[in-house]
Amino acid sequence: MTEITRDVVIVGAGAAGTTAANELKKAGLSVAVLEARDRVGGRLWTDVVDGATLEIGGQWVSPDQDALKETIAELGLETYSRYREGESVYIGPDGELTRFTGEIFPVAPATEKIMVELIEKLDRMTAEIDPAHPWSHPDAEELDTISFEGWLARETDDQEARDNIALFIAGAMLTKPAHAFSTLQALHMAASAGSFSNLVDADFILDKRVVGGLQQVPQLLAERLGDDVHLDAPVRTLRWGAEGVVAEAEGITVRAKYAILALAPVLYDRISFVPPLPRRQHQMHQHLSMGFVIKVHAVYDRPFWREQGLSATAFSPYELCHEAYDNSNHGDERGTLVAFVSDKHADGVFELSAEERKERILESLAHYYGPEAKNPVVYYESDWGTEEWTRGAYAASFDLGGLHRYGKDQSAPVGPIHFACSDLAGLGYQHVDGAIRMGRLAAADIVERSRS
Questions:
Q1: How far is CA 136 from CA 96, 143, 234, 399, 428, in A?
Q2: Average model confidence (pLDDT) across the chain
Q3: What's the rounded Cα separation, in Å, for the pair 411 and 75?
Q4: Sign, CA torsion 181/145/199/158
Q5: Which of 131, 139, 399, 77 is nearest to 265 (CA)?
Q6: CATH number of 46-64+76-84+205-213+292-386
Q7: Has residue 124 got a pLDDT over 90?
Q8: Which residues form the Amine oxidase domain (predicted)?
Q9: Which segments of the chain belong to CATH 3.90.660.10?
Q10: 120 marked among binding-site residues
Q11: Is 27 among the annotated ligand-binding positions?
C-alpha cells in the first residue's frame, strides 16, 4: 500500500477532476487524482470498435460553451462542424415520414402554431431562471411540484405538440420520461443552454466535434499531471474532519487538506465516509438519479443518406430511435449514423436478446433512411447503464420537488470536502462545459480557503 501526502485529493479523472487538478497545480498546490477506471475521461470515451473510431460518450461542442471552447483552444485541439447539408426527416404519430428544413417539425398547421407558442412561452419562462440558482425563482416550489408532462397537458390538449416539445427535454437531454421530472428541472435544463429554443435547434446544441475525439480534453489535461494521476484506484473510504481528509483507495492512501469529489452524485454511496456525511446530504443524494439512454453507432461504407439529399438529422417521439444524426468522422470516407433510444424505450429493448435489440434499432433507422440503414459494417451500442462507475446517462437530475428543496446545497462544501461535476452545474449542466466550470469553481474555492 502506497501512502502519500498532498494538499488536495481529487476523486475522479474526468473533465471536472482533471480541470480542477490543473487549476490547483497552477496555484502552487500539490494534488493526487484517484480514478476508479483503468482510463482517464469519465463519461468521455473515444474508442476504436472493429476498426471504427467512435465517441462512446460525450462529443458535442455548442457555441455558448465558452469554458469548453477555451480549454479546447488552450490544448491545441481542432474542431469541425457536424454535417447538416440537406433535408431533415420527421415521422409523425401515423408513421408517415416527411422531409423538412428548419427547426419546427412538419406537423399540421394547428399543431405547429401550438408548438411555436409553447416554445415562445418556455423561452420567456426560461429567461426568468438563473441557471446557477433555479431554486431562487419566486415560483420555484410550484414549478418543481408539477411534472413537465403535467405542465404540457395543462397548456394544450394537442398530443402531438406535447409529445414533440417533451422530446427536447425528456428524450434528448434528461433521458427520463416527462412525468418523472419537474417543470423547474426542465427550465433549468433550458436555462443552462441559454434558452429553450437552443435545445430545439439541433444546429446549435450539436454544433461541432473535436478532431480525434473529445476524450482528448481530459487525456491531455491528465498528461500534464503525470504521476499525480492514479488509475484503477477506486476510493473505498474517505475520512474527514477539521484537520483534513484521508482517502483510502485500492493500492493507495492519500492524506490531504482538502478533497474534491469529481464524480456523479449517484456514486457517492460507493464511498464510506467517516464520519458519515450530514443528514442533509444523505437525503439530497437519494433524490438524484441518472437518466438512461442507449447511444447507437452504425457505420456504413459510405454516407448513403447524402445521396438522397438528406442531412441525416431525424426526429420522432413515436420511433424507437427518437433522434439521429450524421456522425461521420472528420476525413473518413465512411458514413456514421448516431441514434438515441432513451428512458422507457431503452428499458424495453434491454429485455430483448442482443440480436433482436439490434434488429429493432436498425429497423427504426430504416424508417428514417430506407432499407440500406439495416446493413452497417460496424454496429455498437453505448450502454452507460452497465458502467460500474457511471450507472446511467447522460447525467443525474432531481425527482419531482427535489431541485427547489435541495438544489442550493448540492455543491456546497462539507468541511474539507468539495463537489465538482457536470451534474451539479448551472451553465453547461449535464455537458462537458459544465464539468469544466465546476472543476474551476471547486479549485478556486480551495485556493481561496488555503490562502485565508
A1: 44, 12, 36, 18, 18
A2: 97
A3: 27
A4: positive
A5: 399
A6: 3.90.660.10
A7: yes
A8: 16-446
A9: 46-64+76-84+205-213+292-386
A10: no
A11: no
Is 211 marked within a binding site?
Answer: no
Helices (H), ranges, 250-400:
279-285, 304-307, 343-349, 354-369
Nearest CA-CA partner of 264 in 46, 144, 410: 410
**Whether residue 1 has pLDDT greater than 90:** no
Q: Decide the pairing of beta strands 2-11 and 31-34.
A: parallel
- The reported pLDDT for the residue numbered 452 is 82
- Was 340 annotated as part of a binding site? yes
Per-residue pLDDT tens over the stretch 338-351: 999 999 999 999 99
Domain with CATH 3.50.50.60 in the chain: 2-42+215-277+414-451
Of 310, 265, 270, which is closest to residue 407 (Cα–Cα)? Answer: 265
Domain 2-42+215-277+414-451 matching CATH 3.50.50.60: the answer reads: yes
Average pLDDT for 254-263 = 98
Phi/psi at 306 (5° precision)? -65, -30
Q: 216: Cβ–Cβ under 8 A, 6 or more apart, which residues?
A: 46, 75, 77, 210
> Residue 113: which residues within 8 A CB-CB, separation 6 or more?
none
- The answer to whether residue 222 scores a pLDDT higher than 90 is yes
Q: Is the pTM of this model over 0.90?
A: yes
Question: Taking 90 as the threshold, does the pLDDT of residue 377 lie above it?
Answer: yes
Question: For residue 268, is the peptide bond before it cis, meaning its omega torsion is within 30 degrees of 0?
Answer: no
Question: How does strand 46-49 pair with strand 52-55?
Answer: antiparallel
Grid cell listed for 348: 424495453
Answer yes or no: are the C-beta atoms of 71 and 47 closer than 8 Å.
Answer: no
Kindly state the average pLDDT of the residues 43-68. Answer: 97
What CA–CA distances, in Å, run from 367 to 90, 99, 283, 314, 364? 10, 12, 45, 10, 5
| Parallel, antiparallel or unpaired: strands 310-315 and 87-91 | parallel
Write down the pLDDT at residue 8.
98
Q: What mean pLDDT do residues 151-169 have?
A: 98
Q: Which fold has domain 93-201?
A: Guanine Nucleotide Dissociation Inhibitor; domain 1 (1.10.405)
pLDDT (0 to 100) of residue 214: 98
Q: What's the maximum distance between 2 C-alpha atoms anywhere in the chain?
A: 68
Closest CA to 18 of 445, 442, 451: 442
CA distance 98 to 18: 45
Task: In whole angstroms, give the CA distance from residue 186 to residue 23.
Answer: 32
Alpha helix (H) residue ranges in 62-158? 66-74, 109-127, 140-144, 148-155
